[in-house]
Design brief:
It is a single chain. 12% of the residues lie in helices and 56% in strands. It contains two helices and 17 strands. The radius of gyration is 27 Å and the shape is elongated.
Length: 249
């Protein structure tokens, strides 16, 4: 009996060691992972000169330009592991609002406007290591469809172009804007760390080559040429960082 009791601590120690050595079973074929976190979008942007397309004084506005500020939003991703190494991820989240500031001859305007960007994406990923690894780097590529709504121009910018288009005669003409939608590729690298079979943290950095065309409609009086249209192109090319917490089921 005494010998049996003396074996109990050894058995307990072996059990703990076996549990620690057991595979995490964290990211294997058939696994689903829902991740929630923070998207930070940092545009690597540039813009073309604003051009008045019709009416009196049609042509480029010399030295005009704009720049897009960084944005943050809540991110949501759903990942399905097709094999232990390959997965498909749907990236969603609350659409961020981008703000544009004037540059060059429009620098004095300050904020030009803002727009909400929708950009759901599907990304195929290859995960290094095996399905039971705690730390799993990955690379991926996919596609996103980008469109915009709630596009607003500031009253200061509307006054500025109204005055420019009428040589200072009118500063109260109203303007509205629209942004083109487009498909864009997504390139990503990152890693997940699995605490146990259910919970993990992830960090990814993605690059999206993205360009959009902006059209501005200004309602000038008939004596000043009537309704006129202006256009420019914005290259946004955001670097997107996603820091998240994931749950496997």
């Amino acid at each position: 009996m005494q010998k049996q009791f003396s074996l109990l601590p050894k058995i307990a120690a072996l059990s703990v060691m076996a549990a620690c050595a057991a595979p995490a079973m964290a990211q294997t074929a058939g696994s689903n992972v829902v991740s929630v976190g923070w998207f930070h979008l940092a545009p690597q942007d540039s813009s073309e000169i604003l051009r008045k397309n019709d009416g009196p004084g049609a042509g480029p506005i010399p030295g005009s330009g704009s720049t897009v500020k960084s944005a943050d939003t809540l991110g949501l991703a759903f990942t399905r592991y097709l094999t232990d190494n390959f997965s498909l991820t749907a990236d969603l989240g609350i659409p961020p609002t981008f703000k544009l500031d004037g540059t060059g001859t429009l620098a004095g305007v300050g904020e030009i406007g803002k727009a909400k960007q929708w950009s759901p994406a599907i990304v195929a990923k290859y995960h290094f290591g095996d399905g039971n690894s705690a730390f799993r780097p990955f690379v991926g590529a996919g596609v996103t469809y980008v469109w915009y709504d709630n596009v607003e121009l500031t009253s200061n910018f509307q006054r500025t172009i109204s005055s420019k288009y009428t040589n200072g005669a009118i500063s109260s003409a109203k303007s509205s804007a629209s942004l083109s939608s487009s498909w864009a590729p997504v390139l990503t690298v990152g890693a997940n760390y699995n605490f146990d079979k259910n919970w993990s943290v992830g960090l990814s950095v993605s690059y999206i080559p993205l360009k959009t065309d902006a059209t501005i409609t200004t309602e000038l009086p008939a004596v000043a040429g009537g309704t006129t249209h202006s256009s420019t192109s914005l290259t946004i090319n955001p670097i997107v960082t996603f820091l998240s917490v994931g749950y496997r089921f």
